[in-house]
Structure formats: C-alpha cells, structure tokens
Amino acid sequence: MLSERFMQRTLVLAITSLLAACGGSSDNVSPGSIVVEVPVEGGSPDPDPDPDPDPDPDPVPDPDVTPSVIPDALSDVITDSGRTAASGYGNKPIFTIDVGALTGGVTQQEAGRGTLTDGVTQQKAGRFALADGEGDRVQLDPTGLVLGNDAIYEISGGALFVTGGTLEIAPGAVIAGASASDFLVISQGARIDAEGTADQPIIFTASADVEGTVEDNERGLWGGLVINGFAPINDCPEGETGGTEGCTKEGEANSGTFGGADPEDDSGILKYVNVRYTGSNVDPENQLNGIAFQGVGSGTVVEYVQVHNALDDGIEWFGGTVNGKYLAVTGAADDSLDWTDGWTGAIQYVYVEQTDSGDNVIEADNREGDENLEPRSNPAIANMSAFGSASERALRIRRGTGLAMSNSLITGSERCLRVDGASRDLLGAELTFAGVTFDCATMHDEDADGAVEAYLDSATNVSQNGGNVEPVTPADPRLDPTTFVGAFGATDWTAGWTTPGTISNTEQPDFGCPSGTTDANETIDGLRVCDIEGTVTSDLTLTANNLYQLNGKVTIGDDANPATLNIQAGTTVFGGTGFDFLVIAQGSKIEAIGSRTAPITLTARADVEGSADIETDRGLWGGLVINGRAPINDCPEGATGGTEACTKQGEADSGLFGGADSEDDSGTLNYVVVKYAGSNVDPENQLNGIAFQGVGSGTEVSHIQVHNNLDDGVEFFGGTVSAKYVVLTGNADDSLDWTDGWTGSLQYLVIDQADDAGDNGIEADNREGDENLEPRSLPRIANMTINGNPAERGIRLRRGTGLELYNSVVQGSGNCLRVQGESLNQLGTGILFDGVTLDCATVNEGDDVDAVQSFLDSSNVAEGTSAPAAADLSGDAFFDATSFVGAIEDPANDWTSGWTVGMPDGNVAFGCPAGTTEVAPIGDKTACEITGTVTGDLTLTRDNYYVLEGKVLIGDEGAPATLNIESGSTIVGDDAEDFLVISRGSQIMAMGTEMAPITFTSLSDIEGTVAADTRGQWGGLVINGFAPINDCPAGIEGGTAQCTKEGEANSGLFGGDNPADSSGELHYVVVKYAGSNVDPENQLNGIAFQGVGSGTVVEYIQVHNNLDDGVEFFGGTVDAKYVVLTGHADDSLDWTDGWTGRLQYVYIEQTDIGDNGIEADNREGDELVTPVSNPSIANMTIVARSDARAVRLRRGTGLKLYNSALLEGNHCLRVGGESLNLLGTEIVFDGVQLDCTTNNEGDDVQAVQDFLDSSNVSEGASQPPAATLPADGFFEQNSTIGADVDTWKGTWTFGI
Fold this sequence. Notes:
Layout: H1 5-8, H2 16-22, E1 33-36, E2 68-71, E3 78-84, E4 93-98, E5 106-107, H3 108-111, H4 122-126, E6 138-139, E7 146-147, E8 152-156, E9 159-162, E10 166-169, E11 174-177, E12 183-186, E13 191-195, E14 202-206, H5 207-210, E15 225-228, E16 249-250, E17 257-258, E18 268-276, E19 281-283, E20 286-287, E21 291-294, E22 301-308, E23 315-318, E24 324-330, E25 337-340, E26 346-353, E27 362-364, E28 380-387, E29 393-397, E30 403-411, E31 415-419, E32 431-439, E33 442-444, H6 451-458, E34 462-463, E35 518-524, E36 527-536, E37 540-542, E38 546-556, E39 564-567, E40 572-575, E41 581-584, E42 589-593, E43 600-604, H7 605-608, E44 624-627, E45 648-649, E46 656-657, E47 667-675, E48 680-682, E49 685-686, E50 690-693, E51 700-707, E52 714-717, E53 723-729, E54 736-739, E55 745-752, E56 762-764, E57 780-787, E58 793-797, E59 803-811, E60 815-819, E61 831-839, E62 842-844, H8 849-857, E63 860-863, E64 917-922, E65 925-934, E66 938-940, E67 945-954, E68 962-965, E69 970-973, E70 979-982, E71 987-991, E72 998-1002, ...
Parallel strand pairs: 4-8, 7-10, 8-11, 9-12, 10-13, 11-14, 12-15, 13-18, 14-18, 15-21, 18-22, 21-23, 22-24, 23-25, 24-26, 25-27, 26-28, 27-29, 28-30, 29-31, 30-32, 31-33, 32-34, 36-38, 37-39, 38-40, 38-41, 39-42, 40-43, 41-44, 42-47, 43-47, 44-50, 47-51, 50-52, 51-53, 52-54, 53-55, 54-56, 55-57, ...
Antiparallel strand pairs: 1-2, 3-4, 5-6, 16-17, 19-20, 35-36, 45-46, 48-49, 64-65, 74-75, 77-78
C-alpha cells in the first residue's frame, strides 16, 4: 500500500535519458521530488493509435508499473549508477543508495528531539539517544520516498538505517545489497511498507543476483533485513526487568536498539517478500540472518515471506510478539528458524527445506545464561512442513524456551528432537506437540533420563515413525483451525512468488488410508481409493490425497458415540452404486470446509472415472443426509411439535431427527458440491442431494451446490438452519423443497432448471395432513434467481407454509407462482414479497388467482422484465443489506465462479424498465433512454446503459418519485444538454459498492475516446432538497419555508425549513467528464447539492474532470464522507448560500488545469445573511497546482478545518471580505498543515498570519499534532493529518 505522501510532495525533475525513452513525463508530482520513469518490458502499446495524434501525447501508463519517487533531499544519496540489471530483472536501471552520502541525514539523537514523524511518540523517539554508540549514526529519513518497480535499488556503503516515518516499497520492487557489508535496518519507531503481490513480489537480494552472476548455492553475498521494535524482550541491561521500557538491547552487527514495553508495536508490513543470498559476516563476530525480527510487536504484519540461501539463520526472532503466516525458509546454511530473548509470537503455514548445507531446522532458546527469565520464549507453531538434512537435527529446544507445535510434519533429518536445559522441565506443560508426525532416522537424542521419550510416548496424536496423525484444533486463538497436517492443504501458497525451484514438497504427507477407512487396493487417476462403510463411531479425517468410496449407507456417529467427519478442501467422496449414501447422525458433525479453488466434491464413481454426462446423468448414488435436534412439527402421535419428543425417521431409513434445540450444531458445509445423486434407495424412497433433517441454526452452510439430482436438490425437513450462496442446477424434481416446519433463511440462491427435467423451482409445505401445525414452515429468502423450465412452475407454496421473499427474480418458468390450501391464508402475513420480479408466461395460477393477484398488486413486485426497488434488508441480522435484485450483483461479483459445475450465467437481464425507452445499443449492451420528467418510481438495473436525453427530472413539485440505481449501473450523457435533476421531495437511491460503483459519465468515455484533459461532455447531477438556504426572494427570511431559489441551468427549485430532509443516498458513485455549458449563462457542477438536508446519506463519491466545479453545496445541511475530487477546471469544492454540513476524508487533486481547491462564500451581495455558511471539514488533503490556490474563503463564510493538509499550491490560503472578521471564531484551523510556495496571501495578510500563528497549524513539510475532532456523532476520531486516501480509495476510484 503506497502512502499518499508521494502524491503530496512531487514534481518532475527531468532525468533526461529515462524520460525521453517514455516520450513524456509525469505531471502529478511536485517540487522536491524526482519521479523515475523508465521503459519496462511488458508495457502494452496502444492497439488503436489515433490517426491524428496529439503532438505531445501523455504516455499510457502500464498498470503494473509503480514509478519511484525520490525526494530532492535524497537526490545526492539515490543516484543512477549507469548500470542495468540482467534480463531476468527486466534490464532495469540500477540506482545506488549511497549510505556514505547520508551526511545530511537524521541522526538517532536528532530523531529524539523536535518534530516527530507519524506514529513515533516523544518517549519512544527519545530512546534513540540512549543506545551507546548510536547517537551519531546517520539514518535515512524516508519521508516522500517511494522505491518503485521501475528500477533496481542497490544499497552500497554499509548499513542503511531507516529512522522515523515509513519506507514505502512498491509491489515488484527489487532492493539489492552491493556487498557483504551492506544491509537494511528498520529502526525502532520506523516502519516498512513492503506489500507485494503473488504476481509482483518484492525482492531483497544481492547485486550479483540482479546482474545475473549468482550461483545456485551461493550465500552471504550481502547482509539481510533487520527490523527493530519496541516489543518486550528479556535480555536487559543490568538492573532492568524484562518486558519493561528499560529492557533494550543492541542487535547483532551493531544493527540498532530494540526492545521495550509495547507488545502491539507496529513496524509495518512484509507481504509477498522474497529475501535471497543473505547472511554475510559483517565483522568477525557478527553474521546476519536473512531476516532478524528484533523486539518486533504484534502490530506488524508478516505473511508470504521466503528467505532463501542465508549463510546464517534464515529467520531469527529476538524476543517480541510478532506473528507470521505463510513462511518459507530454504537453503539456510545454519538454522532455518531460530529464536531467543523471549519471543512469544505464533506462526502458521511454515515450509522449511534444507539443501546442501544446514544445521538445525529449529534452534530455539529462551535466554543463554539465565534460562528462566521472563518473558519466556514460548511461541506457537502450526502447520509446519520441515524437510531436514539427513545429517543434521530437526528441532533443538533449549535454554528454557517453550513451544506449542501442532499439525506439523518433521521429516528427513538424521535426528528429530533434542531438548536441553530448563526446557526439559516444560515437557507436557509449555513444551507440547499435538497432531505432529516425526519421521527421522533417530527420534530423539541426549535424553539420558528418558524424559523426552516418556513425554512422547504419553502424548496424544503424535507419531514417532512417520505414521498417520489427526489434525487438532490449536488452543492458541492466533492460529487457524485446519483439517490437514503440514504446511499445505489443497492450495500451494508458494506458487508464483517464491524463488523458482526452491520449493520441492507441496503435497500433503501421505499417511495412507486414514484410520476408520480401509484400503480398497484400487487407484483412480493415480489416487488411492479408501473404503468407508457401516457406522463410524470415532472422529474421522478425510485428506485430499485419497479418494473415498461409500459402501452402502455410511453413518457418522450413533446415539452412544457421536463423531465428527472432517473433510479437507479438495477431497472427493463418491458412491459406487445407487445404495451408497452418507448420513450424519443426530449429535454428530460434518466439518466439510472447502475453498473456491479446492471445493469438496460428493459425487458418483462414474464422475470420478470420467464417464458421467454432466447434462443428463442423475441418480447414480444416494446423497448426503444431515440429522439434527432442532424443532420439527411431524411428530409421533401425542407429541407436540418443537419438543424433544417430536422426532421422525428420515426417508430411506436415514436416521432419527428433530428435537427442541433450535441452535443445534451439525457442523459446517463450505464450498461443497454434490453431483449425480438422488438414487432410489428402495422402491419407496428416493434421496435428495442434501437433506437437512431437523438441522439447527448452529450449523454453518455456505457455498454449496447440488447438480443433477434425480429427486429434489436440497430439502429442509423442519429445523432452523440457514445458508448463503446456494446453487441448484439440473435437478429432476424440485430444486428446493421444504416441509415439517422449517424456519431458516437463505440468501444468494441460484436455481437453474434443466430443459430435460425438473418440476418446481421451489415446492414448499408446512405439513401434509395438518396444514396449520406449529412450528409453521416460515423461511425467509433474499437475493434468489430462478431460471425456470418453460414447461414447469417457478414457486409452489402449499399446505400452510409461509415465505418471506426479498430482492428476487423468477423468470423463464411456464408459471411463476401458485399458492394453495392454508397457505392462501398466509398472504400478506406469513407470505410477504418485497423487491421481487415475476417474469413468466403466466405469473399467477392456482386455486385463488384473484387473492394472489391482489396480494401481488399491493406488494413491491414487478411483473415482466422490469425490476422493482430493492427491499431494505438492514433490519435483519442474517441478511446482507443488498441493493440489487437477484442472486448475483454483477459479473465482477459472481460468487459462483471458480467452484461450481454446469453453471450457466447467473446474472439477470431485465431489459429496459418501464419509464425508459430502448434505443440503439452501445457496444453489445442494451441502451435505455430516459427523457423528460419521471413521475413514478424507477429502478435502473446494471444490465443496461441508461442514456439521458436533455434535462431529466426525477419527480416534480408535489409529485415525488424515487430513482433506484443498482450497483454497477452506468448512466450516460451523450451531449452538452443532458443532465439529471432530483426534484425537491424526490429521492435518488444510488447504492453502489466498492467492486461495482455506479458511474455517471459521457458516451465518449464508454466508447473509449476520452483523453486526460476531456471535460464538459455532458451536464452533471443536481439534487434539490427542502433544507435551509439564505438566498431568498425579496422580503423572505433565510431558513424559512418561503426561502427558495431556482437552481443554475433551470435545474429546479430548492430550499426550505427542513434541515433533516432526505434526498436519498449516494454510495460509491463516480461522476466523470461533466460540467457542460447547458446554455451560455449556465455551466453545471459535477454534483450540485442544492438545499439538500442532513437526512441524505453521501459516502464514497468521486467527481473527475468537471469543466466547472467538482462539487458545489448551495446551502443545506448535507454531510459526506470519503470524497474524491480530481482534475476539475474550476474549483474542486465550492459552497455558498449558507451550507452548514460536515465532510470527513476528502482528497482533492488538481491536474493540468484548475482554480481553487476550495472556493467558499456565504452569500454574494449580503455577506452576513443567515444561515451563515459554516461547514466543518476533517481529514482533507488538497494537492494543488503549483500556480493555483488551495483554499479561498470569502463573502462571510466560516470554516472549521481539522487534521488536514494543504499542499503544493502557489498559495495555500486566502481570506477576504467579512470572512476576515470570523478568524478565530467561526474560522478555526486545528491540526492543519500548510505547505505551499506562499502559505498566506490576500486582503489582510497580517490578520490571517496572526490567526495561523495562534492556531495548531504547521507551515512547511512538518505536520502538526492531530486535533481532537468534535464529538458530534459524525466525525471518526483519528490521529491522521490528511485524507489518508490510500486506506479507502480501493478499486472504485479513478485517476488518482
């Protein structure tokens, strides 16, 4: 994650040879920085060049290239070496970071005084001066520095110490050490932000590697990476107590002070980081590790890290509390993992491979010399695969350290385990092994008293000879529960980012068929087949390296012996005949936890053998039955529904179910696919794909599919279980069925019926024979799509069942809905439809068509191809509050992709909704025109483009309407007269998401013909409300109902006396290329909020490249958060007419043109009129043009400004007119940085300067202390100066 700092302080200084190769230069940077732009192999040329190109076109940026930014202060330190890297590193230029040139840097003593950087307290920074010999150590201040992936950065001249601030390293960046004396140190209080990706890992390596001369077995070519933190250690100066602020230590090789009293200290992030060829002898007494975590705290993120070919240890922890996941150490010449000084972190998914050299896989101490010091080294390690050297030892545990190791494989070493010193006293207490298999020539050594042997013999779930062990659930909450032993489950997490050829063993350990199964003496496609039969009365784990065949009815657990069936991700279980099925008994559990890339499959032998027909085969085996103790209503005679006595035998003799425990837990189904099931087990019984029989709400069900079942896909027999992300495809009877009093919920359900088979999409009962029995079947379903069979029915509700159905679509069926029997009496009470489209040849058929039609007419239901407004689900704790109709939001959010089979396109196409007109398509997408005044509610779905024709009004005075816009929708203006107006009293509900924002843009943008300076191609968005304004007709008082005004460009009346008025909601909305001259006197803003009230919700909005202002507030009280304004030709943010709202998290960036970042008035012509414009803004960053102004306050406006940064402009601030009289009262600056060429200019510079000098304001590059924000329920308290845009800009913004 790159800091916004480089956007705050950047301007191109030409690097002639590099920029000429690019054909241009960056224009989004400022004085004080060099942007390095170099040709990078793999950049894409323009596939359709302009036949009449711009004589000086902007280069098309490669999305994978992050340019480097070198602050001017470091221009003599970081220089072009004139060398280039080998082809394996893209022939990129090599820049030298010359440690010897840091004469003007910051010493550690200086870091302890004066202005401090983010996140460093005075107390912490002051500690820098306490370490003997460190006071004069010159360090690098990383402020404004970004090490991009467009060049190689070579550390030369010794240890590079980073002090204060954050060292930003882009994905794909490469940092090299030039010699054995060069290494990188992140000092206490500083941070490293090295967050690569699987496709673009960050590499720390040796110059020889970059130059292409390194040999595979080389080590020690440079030092390595050292990170120092303030977390507790136990190796203290004399007289100090471990874990206190006074307990600090100097690192090996004079690598800096570490230790303290902050277990949650944050030294940054290492993610997808590869460290190679380290461990040089810096001096005769000191050899560096690949990575040394020295007193590093748990606030530091360490994930996906490899150390390869270290001459000393791969990774060593010196005290601290830092955790890690997905760690690989290969080819270390000494110990692969080492710890000492009181490390108490947790690591999981750890791969160690020793090669031609190496000592111990793990060598671990508490403290040499005083083995019981506190805090004691006592880490937790889970899911480690260690492939040791045949001549060395795997684990050496000594000097008082503890260790809790679980779910791990230790193999290949000559000796597996040695325990020495005070650590022997911890065996079975703080030194434990569980779910661990040891496979070495010798199990343990140096065990004269037999304590290690005795412990291992008594330990449960430990094998000393490489045998099968069951995974355990780690007691440490920092560790994930898993169903596998070793570093890898079904996914190779090392793929793509580790050093090629260094990871040799990514398979799970092969323990044969697990206990509880038998070897079938058969393989299919190279996988062993293990048989399961009868009743399994103890826990059983099915690993993904076998196939499992059900023989007959297999029952997990019984009344006396409940058991848990654990199934690893990627595992396949199959039935060989129509009599084979799987039953989970009452009280037992199934823990089937797959993943998107490795789902669990329950299928037929024919499928495993490759002979099943995905279109037509069904009924090749039984299916899955889960029995629970949740309430049902089908009881033995005399028993009452929902009581313990109300139980029932399942179909096909599948076991007893029912009871009184609504929260009963039968386990977990996650990413599970059931195929080709539903056989006739006997003439009277046909099984469902999955039968949930009396299953309780404690059971977790998510991402399941049943494909081509001969009977129902999924049937619920009573119970309370709920599920999300359900796919039912090709089932021959009903896709979804329920009976016996089911009261659970479903969300995100796709039903796709096959053309060759299928009855109802849903067939639902309460109870046959007694239709009003309790508990009544009364489920709730949201976001369902039924693609039905044209000869069948979508939904059949009968025998007293209810159903609450929300935000769903039924299409393609011959009949959409039939309601029968006592269910007719549930219409409007137990049967509720809200946000439902019924699009079938016949919508409603059955016993009482009139009653059903009356119900539909009175509900939020659309008949035909149109979409209704989405129902509000926010009041339901189970449902996600979606703003779309149907199961899948849009193709970008298709949750079915990657794990389902036989899955058609689950997205819904509604066609042009009523109130719009279909016009010529745009590309291959339907286009719907909106024109004139829309007088009824209108919903715009994401499957079309919506073209504005002229001024489009939503509602009218006295005739309000609501415009609902689904996430991912695009609204288009195709000429200068097109703009959208929300009238007073009407509402816009624009409910975008981060992954699917709503876009208002121009036709040229859709067609791909816009340029960097395109603006004014259409009008914009205007929202009018009834909130107070101060620009009134003659004789009218501001803020009253009579104080109204006509908007610019005849955009409608606004203003009134309702400060809490609601004009709807804007979430994740982007407005681009607007601001056209609608007529000679009127130019529109990107978004104009005109008299809009505080009941309107506005968050995550961007306006880009508007020809007039980006956003303007004309009075009103509306608030907003997460606002991005980029590239506007006039003012980015403007207000007038008495706006009194609030903003937080605002990022403004001017580009090739622009006037003020903010231009603000109270009222032109009468500057003191009330209500006075007086907004409050917090966490704003303005990156102004070098010839522009950041903020202009005039004509009586006030402004409360907190925790904000005004940067790079020619002028930061101008205050004029009556606003000068508000300085210090209604104009307040607290926690504000002004860093422009001139910070203060205008009518009374001295008065403004006096105000600034008396305020919590900094002038220049330093930042002031953060303010305490108003505790008004709107502002989020924080200590950040500026917008912190990197943390929330996500993927929805454009052009930042």
